[in-house]
Recover the amino acids of this structure.
């Protein structure tokens, strides 16, 4: 186990989506079909969750046939895993944005970073909601997703602690707390808008982070 992390060094084999590829290389039309399926699934996950989303709804929203869906994805679970792969990369890129903060950063710098982070959730937040539901019923999915998520949280916590100079808490625990706070805030803001505006939430969040990091 690494110092400053609760995530074991030994890694289980990642759980990968089973993406069917009927041709040696996917052409533009196939890529568009896959993206349409992924975009439709994100949108439905956001309102109906994992259990409430059916393949019929996905294909209807995406404007493709069930045959087209099964050409590329064996199951709804594989769509979820594909979304998860993209969400993890995007989350780590957003976290890495903390490295660009100047040494004499201000609350305005935190606002800029937080705005970018919430835009990441606009695209990938639906995956987090769906995965948390699916994981209760799928132990293999929960184990694989937990390890990936906690490693991402450890990266986040390590950067937050580095900004503070004196560590506030163990990396994974700190990252999990702040990441979960951001996810939940994003969910509630979307539910409550236009009563709660995103700019107001960003300003409040930046000031909270400032207190945390000073």
């Amino acid at each position: 186990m690494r110092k400053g992390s609760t995530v074991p060094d030994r890694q289980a084999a990642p759980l990968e989506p089973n993406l069917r590829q009927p041709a040696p290389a996917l052409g533009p039309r196939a890529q568009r079909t896959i993206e349409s399926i992924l975009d439709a699934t994100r949108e439905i996950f956001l309102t109906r969750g994992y259990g409430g989303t059916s393949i019929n709804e996905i294909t209807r929203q995406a404007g493709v046939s069930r045959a087209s869906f099964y050409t590329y994805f064996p199951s709804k679970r594989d769509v979820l895993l594909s979304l998860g792969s993209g969400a993890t990369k995007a989350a780590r890129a957003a976290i890495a944005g903390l490295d660009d903060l100047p040494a004499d950063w201000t609350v305005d710098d935190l606002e800029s970073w937080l705005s970018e982070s919430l835009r990441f959730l606009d695209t990938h937040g639906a995956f987090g909601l769906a995965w948390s539901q699916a994981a209760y019923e799928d132990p293999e999915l929960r184990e694989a997703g937990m390890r990936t998520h906690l490693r991402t949280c450890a990266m986040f916590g390590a950067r937050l602690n580095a900004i503070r100079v004196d560590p506030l808490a163990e990396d994974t625990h700190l990252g999990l707390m702040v990441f979960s706070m951001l996810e939940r805030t994003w969910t509630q803001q979307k539910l409550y808008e236009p009563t709660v505006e995103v700019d107001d939430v960003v300003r409040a969040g930046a000031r909270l982070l400032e207190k945390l990091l000073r």
In short: The longest helix spans residues 107-137.
